[in-house]
Design brief:
Helix content: 25-40%
Number of helices: 8
Largest sheet: 7 strands, mixed
Shape: globular
Length: 232
């Protein structure tokens, strides 16, 4: 902590203000250029208004949005922290009832059964098992009263079900300009510096390319995808 305080003090003395990041790996800095656009965001797997949040900076910059998660923080904490935000406790993806594995550390809770062994070995303990209803994003937005419109930015971080969120969405009703998608699997065993050898990553990039997106950046565990229709 002392080293961090000294580093910040040095920055101030030299007239430099460090960038403030709320996200787990600095992903919100990656999209900071969007903040001036005053757009509409959707955050899937939103978790918390500030803790590990990719969209906190967008909300602070005046963007409106809709947040989905299945933790207790949604919707009440989002309503208090982000006045006017739309939010719901909802699992997003292909419609149906699925088993959901809820860990005490909500950040790693998942519907991806293949990740359980790794998460338990990492010390997260044994999860509670629930059966939850999944709905595709377009249906969840309709239930919140959002009329068909362009989504300027969408964050997808649902611990293993991210590509399912994409393929189940109706892009004709709710087109998305820019997406940040966690495409490196939860149980990825290699280095995050060599993600593109993972079959799941290759599959995600292929699927999104088919939908008209190109991979602009890869950061931490997520790919930043930009649609061909996007104009900065």
């Amino acid at each position: 902590m002392a080293n961090l305080v000294e580093l910040l003090s040095q920055s101030v003395r030299h007239g430099f203000t460090p960038a403030l990041s709320f996200s787990e790996g600095g992903e919100d800095i990656l999209i900071s250029e969007l903040e001036a656009r005053q757009g509409f965001y959707v955050d899937i797997g939103a978790h918390h208004p500030f803790r590990f949040s990719v969209t906190a900076r967008l909300a602070a910059a005046g963007w409106t949005g809709a947040c989905f998660d299945v933790t207790a923080a949604v919707p009440e904490e989002f309503r208090r922290a982000r006045p006017g935000v739309l939010s719901a406790r909802q699992l997003i993806g292909s419609p149906g009832v699925v088993e959901f594995f809820r860990f005490e550390e909500g950040l790693v809770s998942t519907a991806d059964k293949s990740a359980l062994g790794m998460l338990e070995n990492q010390g997260f303990g044994r999860p509670l098992v629930e059966r939850l209803q999944k709905r595709p994003l377009h249906e969840a937005l309709e239930r919140l009263g959002v009329e068909p419109r362009v989504i300027n930015f969408c964050n997808i971080d649902v611990e293993g079900g991210d590509l399912d969120v994409v393929v189940s969405h109706d892009f004709d009703r709710y087109p998305i300009e820019v997406m940040l998608v966690e495409i490196l699997p939860v149980n990825h065993s290699g280095s995050i510096f060599e993600p593109f050898n993972d079959p799941a990553v290759k599959r995600a990039i292929t699927e999104l390319t088919t939908l008209g997106y190109s991979l602009a950046r890869f950061h931490h565990r997520s790919g930043l995808f930009v649609h061909s229709s996007f104009r900065p």
